[in-house]
């Protein structure tokens, strides 16, 4: 039990950026837009958040900068994919490549710098045995991520706006015929997704590894994309999936600390191997995926086109 509490706490810490990014991407995909640029958005937000946080000594401003940069990257994607009706897959991949290059160029002067580690504890609850150490010694952004997950459940299934968003994702032609602005709704969904990916990237450089190195995100944007399919586009399952993948990520360090004689490269591959295995298992039942996937996902919509 003494070892389980810090393992749970570390899993939540590792799963927080995945949860933030995946919730944003889920809202994107529920509106019918497939944005594969999560990795690039997170990288740009990570360097922006670290640069602002390091310069101003204010992590809050760093998170704000990360969210803004994520929204700017999402705006670029929205202009290309929604206004110009470019291929969403190709545009998302280009955005990821662009973000990787831009973050590496901008971050050159910040390589090797570090921020002080941030330790927080919820008053009173943090002193509880086991649960206090496991759940209530997290950074405040972890609780924001949980709150966003709960809010997205309420929004999608308990509000009219959420119903309209899901309707746009299922049949944009019908939503347009009823007078809804499909492009406008998808644009707002992309902005929200960009802000969430921005917060996830900033969390990586400000909290999880409070420093900047090139490629800091290390594929977590792609794992977040896989999480949305793993969760069949449902927020509650995204939460469980992020904790699962966070636990797999942290397990490698615990195994190394316990002296398990497995090459470190194999342990580092574990989160990505888990992603492949999960996707392979899901793909065995394409009808189940088709039943839960938004019908218009990845398909461009042109108002007035027959």
From TrEMBL:
Keyword tRNA processing: no
Membrane topology: Multi-pass membrane protein
Location of this chain's protein in the cell: Cell membrane
Gene Ontology CC: one annotated term: plasma membrane
Domain of life, source organism: Bacteria
Keywords noted in UniProt: Cell membrane, Membrane, Transmembrane, Transmembrane helix
GO molecular function annotation: transmembrane transporter activity
PANTHER family the UniProt entry points to: ABC TRANSPORTER PERMEASE PROTEIN (PTHR43370:SF2), SUGAR ABC TRANSPORTER INTEGRAL MEMBRANE PROTEIN-RELATED (PTHR43370)
Protein name: ABC-type transport system, permease component protein
Organism listed in the record: Herbaspirillum seropedicae (strain SmR1)
Lineage: Bacteria, Pseudomonadati, Pseudomonadota, Betaproteobacteria, Burkholderiales
């Amino acid at each position: 039990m003494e070892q389980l509490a810090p393992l749970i706490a570390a899993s939540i810490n590792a799963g927080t950026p995945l949860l933030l990014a995946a919730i944003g991407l889920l809202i994107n995909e529920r509106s019918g837009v497939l944005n594969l640029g999560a990795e690039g958005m997170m990288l740009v937000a990570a360097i922006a958040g670290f640069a602002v946080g390091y310069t101003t000594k204010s992590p809050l401003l760093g998170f704000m900068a990360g969210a803004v940069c994520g929204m700017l990257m999402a705006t670029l994607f929205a202009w290309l994919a929604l206004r110009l009706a470019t291929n969403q897959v190709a545009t998302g991949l280009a955005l990821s490549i662009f973000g990787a290059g831009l973050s590496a160029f901008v971050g050159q002067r910040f390589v090797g710098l570090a921020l002080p580690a941030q330790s927080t504890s919820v008053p009173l609850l943090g002193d509880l045995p086991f649960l206090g150490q496991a759940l209530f010694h997290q950074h405040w952004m972890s609780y924001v991520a949980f709150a966003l997950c709960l809010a997205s459940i309420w929004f999608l299934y308990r509000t009219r706006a959420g119903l309209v968003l899901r309707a746009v994702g299922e049949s944009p032609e019908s939503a347009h015929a009823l007078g809804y602005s499909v492009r406008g709704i998808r644009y707002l969904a992309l902005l929200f997704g960009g802000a969430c990916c921005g917060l996830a990237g900033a969390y990586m450089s400000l909290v999880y590894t409070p420093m900047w190195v090139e490629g800091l995100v290390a594929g977590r944007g792609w794992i977040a994309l896989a999480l949305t399919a793993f969760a069949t586009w449902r927020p509650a399952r995204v939460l469980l999936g992020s904790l699962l993948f966070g636990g797999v990520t942290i397990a490698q360090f615990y195994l190394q600390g316990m002296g398990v004689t497995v090459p470190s490269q194999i342990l580092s591959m574990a989160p990505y191997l888990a992603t492949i295995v999960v996707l392979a298992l899901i793909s065995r039942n394409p009808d189940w995926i088709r039943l839960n996937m938004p019908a218009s996902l990845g398909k461009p919509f042109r108002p007035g086109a027959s």
